[in-house]
Amino acid sequence: MRLDKFLKVSRIIKRRTLSKEMSEASRVKVNGKIAKPSTKLKIGDIIEVEFGRSVLTVKVLELREHVLKDDSHMLYEIIDEQRKEEVIL
Q1: pTM of this prediction?
Q2: What is the number of structural domains in the chain?
Q3: Taking burial as the number of CB atoms within 10 A of a residue's CB, which of 3, 49, 54, 82 is the most buried?
Q4: pLDDT at res. 86
Q5: By percentage, how much of the chain surpasses pLDDT 90?
């Protein structure tokens, strides 16, 4: 499954166009490498998504084309959620 579609189906990012834009802006990594929206995911891949001042790291547990909103959290496991520290000069 494509990275941009997984981020939308899992509801990590609400819209596929937004997940595509974030990937194109180098704000998404798969297994430590900057990923394109078309990157093919496998079960066990580690995804890091940079949201403004926070970074969400998840592990892919399942790949499904369609999933109900209540079941979307079953597609991934949250490994880490960090807030970026602001640099004061």
Answers
A1: 0.86
A2: 1
A3: 3
A4: 59
A5: 74
